[in-house]
Amino acid sequence: MTNRTRILLVVLIAFASALGGVFLGRQLIPVKEPVETELHALLHHQLELDAGQLAAIEDIEERFATRRRALEQEMRADNARLAAAIRAEQGYGPRVDAAVDHSHQVMGELQKATLEHIFEMRAVLRPDQAERFDAAVTRALTTPER
């Protein structure tokens, strides 16, 4: 067995182990509701929004959903580029490094877009509603995962 074959075998075993770990983790550890889900429930079921607020929130959510889908699609393409770089370099080389960096950039864009979305929805709320909304955002971001 050549050195290159051994390295490829180790990379494939490590990758398969990582996939197995992710699968087991998803099966055994309950997933915490995303911040968006808690905020969505608060907005639509607890804050007693008026018709104008509801219409504005729906418009904001629709625009964000489009942006989020585009960024998620870009992240999937980044994963494909990363896989191609790993396959080509068979190690942590410049192409893998660049693919990881780009993936992190897109993840950051999604996080920023999510925060902009949250602040845009907050701007529609009355002060008493915004106070409850802020508390839910703070709770969602600071509550330790179980």
Summarize the entry for a quick read.
The chain has 2 domains: 1-31; 33-142, Four Helix Bundle (Hemerythrin (Met), subunit A) (Up-down Bundle), CATH 1.20.120. The protein has 5 helices and no strands.
Total DSSP E strands: 0
Q: How many domains in all?
A: 2
CATH topology of the largest domain: Four Helix Bundle (Hemerythrin (Met), subunit A)
Treating each run of at least 4 consecutive H or I residues as one helix, how many helices?
A: 5
Structural class by helix and strand composition = mainly alpha
Spans of at least 5 consecutive residues whose pLDDT stays below 50 are: none
**Taking all residues together, what is the mean pLDDT?**
83
Query: What percent of residues adopt helix (DSSP H or I)?
Result: over 70%
**Order of helices and strands, N to C?**
HHHHH
- CA(first)-CA(last) distance: 46 Å
Gyration radius from CA atoms, angstroms: 21 Å
Shape summary:
elongated
CATH architecture of the largest domain: Up-down Bundle
Beta-strand content estimate = under 5%
Protein name: Periplasmic heavy metal sensor
Organism: Alteraurantiacibacter palmitatis
InterPro entries: Metal_resist
Pfam family, one: Metal_resist
Task: Name its key features.
single chain; 146 residues; mainly alpha; Four Helix Bundle (Hemerythrin (Met), subunit A); 2 domains; 5 helices; 84% helix; elongated
